[in-house]
Predict the structure.
Amino acid sequence: MKTYKIAAIPGDGIGTEVINAGIEVLQAIATREGNIKFDVDHFDWGGEYYKKHGRMMPENGRDQIRNHDAILFGSAGHPEIPDHITLWGLRLAICQPFDQYANVRPTRILPGITSPLRNVTDKELNWIIVRENSEGEYAGVGGRVHQGSPLEAATDVAMFTRAGVERIMRFAFALARSRPRKLLTVVTKSNAQRHAMVMWDDIAKEIALEFPDVTWDKMLVDAMTMRMVMRPETLDTIVATNLHADILSDLAAALAGSLGIAPTGNINPERTFPSMFEPIHGSAFDITGKGIANPVGTFWSTVMMLDHLGEKGAAARLMKAIECVTADPKLHTPDLGGKARTADTTKAVIQKIHGANE
Ligand code: IPM
Ligand code: MG
C-alpha cells in the first residue's frame, strides 16, 4: 500500500465546496485502486484566517506542508481584503518559495461541453499552456512613493532571468515533445518590449536546438489571442510569461466552455518541494454557499496531481469518470447552463469511478 500525504488548503469562497468534493473523489479513487491511500491534512488558511490572525497563513505555514507529497488548493480571495494581500499572502507565498516555476494549464473541450466557437471540438482545441510561474511581471519588484500626493509614482518591474527563462523553455519543449503533435508556440511581446522579451526569443531559439524533433513558432501575445479564436487547430503546446499566460489561459478556459472546468498545476519539476494543484476559477463569492459550484476544475486538477505522483492508472480512471459525467448535460452545473448541484456532479463521478471497468 502506497500512502500519499496531501495538504488541502480550501481557502475562501467556493474553495471549500470544491475541495471537499475533490477529496471525496480522491478517496473514492483510492478505494477503487486498492493499493493507494491518501492521508489528507486540512489547513484553514485564507481570508477568514487573516481576519483572525492578521496574516493569510501562519509564519511557519510552509514548514507545515513542506513534506507533503502534494498540495490541493481551492482559492484565495476575500471581499473585505485587498486582492494583492490575499494573493501575495498565500498562493504566491507558496508558489514562489516552493519554486513551482512551471504552471501547467491544459485546455480541451470535454465531451458534452460546447465551445462558444462554432464547430470547434477537442479535435481542434486541445492545448496545454505553460505559464512561467516564478518571475516576470509577478516578480514583485517595484515601489510606490509619495502616496497620495500629486507627485505619486509607482513601478511594477517585470524581471526575467536567463536561468528562469531557460528552465521554463526547457520544460515547455519537453512537454511539447511528450505530446503527439510535438508542436510548441512561444509567446512574447518582443516588438514593443525590447529587452527581456527579446532575451526570451533568443533563449527559445537556443533551447530549440536541444529539441530538434519539436516544431516551434513564435507569436506576439496580441496576435495570439486572434489565433486562439480564429485558428485553434494550429496550436498545441504554448509557453508564455507569467502575465501573458494568465490572460491567455482565461481566454482558453472560456473557449473550452467554462472557467469552472479549467485545472492547473503549479509544478516544481525538480521535486525538491511539493507541487500544488488548483482549479483556476477563483473564490466566486456570488455563488458561495449555494452548493452550485462546478467541481470539475478541481477534479481535473486532481487528475494532474495523480499524474504528478506517478499514479497514471488512477489519473486515467478519474479522467474517464469526469468525461462520462460531463457528457451528460443533466449533470452540468449552472456555469455550463445546467441545473445540477456540486453534490450531484460529485456523486456521479464517484459512481463512475466504482462502476467503470478497465
Ligand atoms: C490565476 C489567477 C490568479 C493569477 C489571480 C487570482 C491572482 O487569475 O491563477 O490565473 O493572476 O495568477
Ligand atoms: Mg488568471
